[in-house]
Amino acid sequence: MAEESGSTRPKALKINLDGLKYGTFAEIGAGQEVARWFFHAGKAAGTIAKTISAYDMAISDGIYGPTQHYCSRQRLEAMLDHEFTRLVERLDQTRGERTAFFAFADTSATQTRSQRAAGHSWLGVRFQTEPRGEPSQIILHVDMLDPVTVEQQEALGLAGVNLIYGAFYNAEDPAHLIASLMDDLSRRRIEVDTIKFSGPAFAKVDNRLMSLQLVEQGLTDAAMFTAAGEVVQPAEVLYNKPVLIGRGSFRPVTNVALEVLDRAVHQLQQDSPDAQDLVVLMEMTLNNLMSEQAIDHRDFLARVDILGALGKMVMVSNYTRFDKVTSYLRHYTQNWIGMAMGVPTLREIFEEKYYTDLEGGILEGLGKLFQGHVKLFIYPTRETDAGDLTTSDSLNVKPELSHLYRHLVENGYIESIREFDAGGLHVTPGAVLASIQSGDPSWESLVPAQAATMIKEKGLFGYGTGGG
Fold first, then answer.
1. How far apart are CA 216 and CA 204, in angstroms?
2. Which residues of the chain fall short of a pLDDT of 70?
3. Of 256, 317, 311, residue with least CA distance to 283
4. Residue 397 to residue 381: CA distance in whole angstroms
5. What is the pTM of this model?
């Protein structure tokens, strides 16, 4: 057990013995599992000003204000606002000169009290790094995956102590702080799919990079942020919405890539009246980001800066196969899922080598890919400017898969994009990147004008290294 051999109890004791830290614990929905660690560690009087657990909805609303969802970012932020403000108001005069105040809060729904397949919780800590300093804040969302409630509660307690300890002692190294959230835990027990840092302690932190860290370090399989760079928990934007995904490296994003996506959006909405409230995601996988076995964070930011300027929401994942993307999205929506891609990507989906880890092979993989309302929108391609046109209707797959492929086409699971620009079908991101790096100015007409401007002004993707 973590209480006997793990790091959680020593962490709580170290905080209790730190005479600078003093604060409030407010927990809703899964007991007082975080505060419990500080009481059990001993010397809790040195840390805890107050603990509260407002289970009754009317009581909770009376303290923090009404809300539509009790386990939500909005309720968590209201809890942090209220508790930190009251703590400082009541104690600043008597001990403000020698105390760095903090407020910890969590609002949770365990499995037995939620319609979700697992429990989940929003956790956060607002804290001063020095007496009377401006507060900083970390909030995160976790899925609690244990099969029984008491184990979910225990996991929440461990995660809460890790968060508080990380805020106090690892704020200068957010990547290490993120890794430490899993101390005494594992992905079998929790998944951290959202984290946001704010305040003066994190003035130089880019939360998009922190989302990438969650995926890189294996705390989650996918993370999302808006065009404005705001990190979001997937359910906040995907819940029962139709979704369209465009996958790629976007190094750089090309006119063809946007054309594929825009045409697919138009066709999906034209043919499916129930797909009007559509969420469009630009997905990059870790494989897309790899360069010489490592991820260049500056290069990653260059890509997402351009996508953000174009108004695109970004998803970062470690999914290589498309069926894993469908399974992930099905946690949040039962509505339409569309995937926009070119013929070369469609050809790869029917490569059996990608499904060797599945007991049912490619049949199992395709079954998972097309679960629910799923459609692949396929943009035609040409190998060269004067080459033959290849569409999803004319694509040849292995003979043993041809009947399966025709079944999917004839039943509308795979559909050609009807309208397209024949002039750019042979353009690939790799060729555009090579032109950027060699100084060949022809690349400028192959990317959106905003992208071209940013690449030249900031010297992105090796621009200027080859005479450009």
1. 20
2. 1-5, 112-117, 291-293, 384-386, 466-468
3. 317
4. 16
5. 0.92
